[in-house]
Design brief:
The chain has about 280 residues and is α/β, with parallel strands linked by helices. It is built from 11 helices and 11 strands. Bound molecules: glyceraldehyde-3-phosphate (G3H) and zinc ion. The site of glyceraldehyde-3-phosphate (G3H) has 15 residues, from strand 3, strand 11 and helix 10.
Amino acid sequence: MSFVPLTDLLKEAVQGKYAVGAFNCNNMEIVQAIIGAAEAEKAPVIVQASQGAIKYAGINYIVGLTRLAAESASVPVALHLDHGTSFDQVMQCIRSGFSSVMFDGSKLPVEENINITNQVLAAARPVGVSVEAELGKIGGTEDDITVDERDAMLTDPDEAKYFVSKTGVDALAVAIGTAHGIYKGEPKLDFARLTNIRSLVDTPIVLHGSSGVPDEAIKEAVTRGVSKINIDTNIREAFTGRCREVMAQKPEEIDPRKILGPAREAAMDIIREKIRLFGSSGKA
Ligand code: G3H
Ligand code: ZN
């Protein structure tokens, strides 16, 4: 199957009251793990690449690897740019074949965020590409973007309503207490804020920084209307953790396949677990 726009997947998720997993990739094994997990779970899936991943692997590799895996899969796959912070980055992804892009203008004043989001929408809509935007500031580090905890700012529900009315964006990332990377303590999500935002905007809501959020909190977020859930750190931990284990057990091993193969399996296992947790298993 060729890539589907995010809007197609999220429309079904909203109706079916589940969330679609959006998993970060940066190499062949992780792409295979994401699509293999979705296929095994018969789940729709979003493969996403950050600017850092694009820089590392090369945009044509990201698109090529994901397209190859998606074409031989029976489940719908969207290829999404995660946290694009410039108009040029977003355009490069649209031209290269992504079916969905995120313009992250959360560090900008709201009117500027609206303005650039609208420019992105004007370029993306005619070619059938979906657009996610972000309002509020999610703390922590996602690849090349770091937001200091003191600068993190929860999404204002009224501002979310205003933002959506001015843009009509396809998906909205909100800050409700999650953070990118590894949590120091247990994250406390502001569910009342999520419900308030949900009551004011119809747009599908995206939860970032979802690795390390307790399962019960994830389920609650889905019940309260989150439709896309981003996972990166948990995949990194599983993948590199397994590499370390294999190398510790077999210090003489020189065949990369004997290290990366088990790491790919570990990544696939955690992705399958997340898909089941989000309620999207069996939805493709
Ligand atoms: O944009 C990507 C996600 O928000 C990933 O967050 O690394 O905490 O899973 P995470
Ligand atoms: Zn994120």
